[in-house]
């Protein structure tokens, strides 16, 4: 119903476009007029076309890969920690912070790629990157989490239902906006307002979840619990009292620089680094806390259930660092708080081991300028200078994104690959690899809901902020709608919506378990999407709307 209302508002806005144009003094061209081709605002390349075809294009490909690493480092080591300080200073709730600041931190490369595509390269590279990244996050990331998880993870239905509902409405509105290859400022504004609705909903997420579950399970005994209270373990109890929510996903984010140099092999199951050890301890403590809470009598009376969970607690020995059961029961909330707030500043020391030393030298041209120009907000001194780090990180992300899109355009032009295809495949995967690594590590710690929810949640930010914000700014600044010229992009978005439905059905068919079968299914769907999208772009397949 909400999606139908939004589409009706869009139709009314488009119908009143001439009046709205007079109000804003926009000179909107008629869709029937031929689109004026704008030259990209990139500098002249150092190499000629002939030199690039003779092999010089390899430098641009290497430069693109280097920018992928640079974007991951500036986001992980400076931008996200600065956002953590802002969240702390403003006392923002974890669920709202996750939907706003943390989503912005994880999706900053896609956002700036979209901005550059609209204002600099004047093509659909940003749209392709966001659509491709969305499919990569939904299918490839979830598939990798299922394949590389140590055990079969159980998922709860609420986070997936909540995020997929908002995401589905966003995609329906996006499909409507793309129907005539012109994006008007009213359409961009409606799409952007969906993000505000999502943030407001996240503010009341837990009360709504409790009320809905109470309504669904009204004939069952016990208190309804929220997904944040039960998602810490793979087998959550059905009855539990009030509990502190699990820590936000951002706190589990492994920086790419840490993974490359100073900590661990993310696939290693033996000797764990400091970050993994803390996450393992937190998982064990939080799981035991759920079991302990389940043994408390409730107003509705659940003596049999409490006895069963007491027996489970006795039969499930947990190797906790503090030893005693009573100590953990009394201090568990303080323990979670201490582990959650444990942060380590950027370590610039010379590493041990030949491979790590080579990696250190390779990333030094990226890390040292960042380290010299941006205060590390994880130190007491840097925490006071968080505005400098925040604004400086945005400038660095914009600079790295500019170089990435520039070199991608040159490499694509040399190989006769359209910008939309570059964004849909290479740029989408490159900007999403850090999130892939983080999600796999989180899933291997037993937080299946956190891994899935972060994948879908970042897509909501991309579609409702990464796309409409540049379109809205372009309409205000230039006084005309944004022209999107990709032949198969409409069908790619429709296909993305279909893949979202397939994901939900696949998870339901596998009984809400993240196992190997689900992982292979997700990979198969991802490669089907890429193949069909490439067929649409190159004309081997034809979109019915054309």
Q: How is this fold's topology laid out?
A:
Layout (H helix, E strand, L loop, with lengths): L1 H14 L1 H8 L24 H42 L3 H6 L1 H19 L5 H24 L4 E2 L2 H21 L4 E2 L1 H19 L1 H12 L10 H4 L25 H7 L11 H21 L8 H13 L9 H16 L13 H20 L6 H5 L1 H29 L4 H26 L3 H19 L1 H11 L3 E2 L5 H21 L3 E2 L1 H23 L8
Antiparallel strand pairs: 1-4, 2-3
Helix pairs in contact: 1-7, 3-5, 3-15, 3-17, 3-18, 5-6, 5-17, 5-19, 5-20, 6-18, 6-19, 6-21, 6-22, 7-8, 7-19, 7-21, 8-19, 8-20, 11-15, 12-13, 12-14, 18-19, 18-22, 21-22
Structure description:
This protein is mostly helical. Helix content is 70%, strand content 1%. The strands form 2 sheets. A two-stranded antiparallel sheet has the order 1-4. Strands 2-3 form a two-stranded antiparallel ribbon. Helix 6 runs antiparallel to helix 22 and helix 12 (274-294) crosses helix 14 (325-340). The chain is globular, with a radius of gyration of 24 Å. The chain starts with a helix and ends in an 8-residue tail after the last helix. 45% of the residues are buried. Mean pLDDT is 74; it is low at 1-35, 229-253, 263-283 and 297-342.
Give me some keywords for this one.
globular, 1% strand, two-stranded antiparallel sheet, 22 helices, 546 residues, two-stranded antiparallel ribbon
Span between termini: 28 Å
Helix segment tally:
22
Strand order of the largest sheet: 1-4
Helix content percent band: 55-70%
> Mean pLDDT score, rounded?
74
> Class by helix and strand content?
mainly alpha
Give a brief description.
This protein is an all-alpha fold and 546 residues long. It has helices at residues 2-15, 17-24, 49-90, 94-99, 101-119, 125-148, 157-177, 185-203, 205-216, 227-230, 256-262, 274-294, 303-315, 325-340, 354-373, 380-384, 386-414, 419-444, 448-466, 468-478, 489-509, 516-538; strands spanning 153-154, 182-183, 482-483, 513-514.
